[in-house]
Write a structure and sequence with these properties.
Elements: H1 10-19, E1 21-24, E2 28-34, E3 42-46, H2 54-70, E4 79-85, H3 94-107
Parallel strand pairs: 3-4
Antiparallel strand pairs: 1-2, 2-4
């Protein structure tokens, strides 16, 4: 994930927590904050030490970033997304993380519908 697509500063995280809307399932909490005049979306990740050791936490973050790369053209631009991983995320496979995140983003209504491919 490119650097300009990431949220790094504590102030930006706090703004998303205070002004954004939150959506959750058992594995993830997603804060969505609309940003006027921002042509791309940005993603901030928060994976607590309660999740596991550094290896586990980094793996969860890699899975989340990969999911956003795969959903890139379906995620609405102009928003900041802060993803907080919950404990069950530590034991999930890449596929499970993608399905779970996709579910939360659908609940948040920030995923575009997939167009069915037609055979010509």
């Amino acid at each position: 994930m490119r650097k300009e697509l990431r949220i790094k500063k504590n102030k930006e995280f706090q703004e998303a927590f205070k002004k954004g809307n939150s959506f959750a399932n058992r594995q993830f909490v997603v804060y969505v904050l609309k940003k006027e005049g921002q042509e791309n979306y940005r993603v901030g990740l928060s994976v607590s030490k309660k999740i596991g050791n550094a290896v586990v936490r980094n793996q969860v973050k890699r899975y989340i970033r990969q999911t956003f790369l795969e959903l890139n053209d379906r995620v609405y631009k102009g928003n900041d997304y802060v993803i907080i991983a919950r404990k069950p995320a530590a034991t999930m496979s890449m596929h499970e993380v993608k399905n779970s995140l996709e579910h939360v983003l659908k609940v948040a209504r920030v995923l575009k519908k997939t167009e069915k491919l037609h055979n010509e």
